[in-house]
Design brief:
This protein is mainly alpha-helical and 231 residues long. It contains nine helices and two strands.
């Protein structure tokens, strides 16, 4: 049995696909058969992304011996939700800001991605949303009328998410609405389908990280707008 030290990192291409980047010197130390295996996956003339911050950190940390902090978008997002809840001392926008079952996907499978999205949606979705507080903001701070709370087609009262969307539209945060819808669509697979836990050719780990990053950035914008409105 042969053991080899193989350093590698993930690198993003210009089409947003993610590939494995391996140090040539390390490959040269492998047995010929293993070298041939790796060579079969070599990409001719790859077009790398010009904005690959994760790979840049990998190079700086592993080869430049720099101390580089990796920002965790999940922690940033949950901290942002906590900050939003602190804007009003009497009631929070979200009832809970933590979920002990929430973890980023560890294995690159669609099931891992769907499970992570399902657990995150339990914090950001309608079941955890304080409808009374949203309605209070719309009525008292933004002067929406009772008619605005009725769905024009069904003539029924609008749901929690419909009221929340009214708030997002007012603040021109359509991107947040789109990101929440994407999160919802991805978690549906975990809640309503039996998914084969096979390793995926897509980078589901990066997909989840990118989605969480977008959610963090847009919830941060929401906090800034609510802070202006409530203080």
């Amino acid at each position: 049995m042969t053991f080899s030290y193989l350093r590698y990192g993930k690198r993003q291409l210009s089409d947003r696909k993610v590939v494995i980047s391996v140090i040539v010197h390390d490959l040269s130390k492998l047995p010929v058969k293993e070298q041939q295996y790796w060579y079969s996956y070599e990409i001719d003339s790859p077009n790398f992304s010009s904005d690959d911050k994760d790979f840049e950190k990998f190079i700086r940390r592993d080869f430049g011996a720099e101390i580089v902090d990796d920002e965790d978008p999940m922690m940033l997002l949950l901290d942002e939700i906590h900050k939003i809840n602190q804007l009003d001392k009497k009631q929070p926008l979200f009832f809970k800001t933590e979920n002990p079952h929430l973890f980023p996907p560890i294995i690159n499978t669609k099931k891992g991605l769907s499970d992570a999205c399902s657990e995150l949606y339990k914090i950001l979705g309608p079941d955890n949303l304080n409808q009374g507080f949203v309605a209070q903001i719309l009525r008292k701070k933004l002067s929406f009328s009772d008619e605005d709370f009725i769905n024009e087609k069904s003539k029924k009262k609008k749901s929690k998410m419909e009221l929340f969307n009214m708030l997002l539209v007012y603040f021109q945060l359509n991107e947040l609405n789109e990101s929440l819808q994407e999160l919802k669509d991805l978690r549906i697979s975990a809640d309503h389908k039996i998914i084969n836990p096979e390793i995926s050719t897509d980078d589901n780990l990066q997909l989840f990280r990118t989605l969480v990053q977008k959610l963090y950035e847009n919830f941060r914008k929401l906090r800034i707008q609510l802070n202006k409105l409530l203080t």
